[in-house]
Structure formats: structure tokens, C-alpha cells
Amino acid sequence: MADHIRIRRKPGTWTVRSGGAVLGETTNALELSEGDLAPVIYFPRTDIAMAFLDRTDKTTHCPHKGDANYYSIVNKSSVDENAVWTYENPLDAVAEIKDHLAFYTGDSIKVEQL
């Protein structure tokens, strides 16, 4: 793993909400810390209501994690474009985040520990 990336299991119950809708809840969250960036909570894909997510064409590349794919969140009250990312085939050094999703947080998207 890159020296500046740390992945650890995050205890407790974590939830992600958008536009008032609960998109997911998990007791299997991972926290990825990367350098000076704020830590990011990754949710197992199996704990997310994928019906709220629409795959987009956006991709990005991280030299430490690999290629990321994106989803928009679509619910009754809003659409949050490219608000979710995932590393479907992460580099071996961060293989733990495979099959996990992370969310850009803000006014309409909240990731919280219950």
C-alpha cells in the first residue's frame, strides 16, 4: 500500500442519506485515510440501495488506487451528479476497497455514524 494510504475497519453503524432517503446502512464500513485529505468512509456495495444510483460515464485515475467509476444519486427530490465513486478493480495495495462505494458529502448527502 502506498505509504500515505491507510485503510481500517470503522466500528459502529454508519448510514448514508440523500434528499431525506436512506441509501444504506452498514456495520462493515471502511475508513480510507490518504495523506492530508479528510478520511473517507467506504460502504460495502451490498449495504447500499443501488436502485437510487445511476452509473455515469465519468472515470478518474489515481496512481495509488487505480481507476474509479462514478454514479449519480437519483431520488424524488434531487439528482446529485457523479456523487458516488468506486474502485471496481483497485490496485493490489488497496484491494480492501473493492466492492465498496464512497460518497461526496455536502448539503444533500450525509454520511454519519449512528
Automatic annotation (TrEMBL):
Start and end residues of each DUF427 domain: 15-105
Pfam annotation, one family: NTP_transf_9
InterPro entries, per the entry: DUF427, DUF427_sf
Record-linked Gene3D superfamilies: Domain of unknown function (DUF427)
Name of this chain's protein: DUF427 domain-containing protein
Organism encoding this protein: Sedimentitalea todarodis
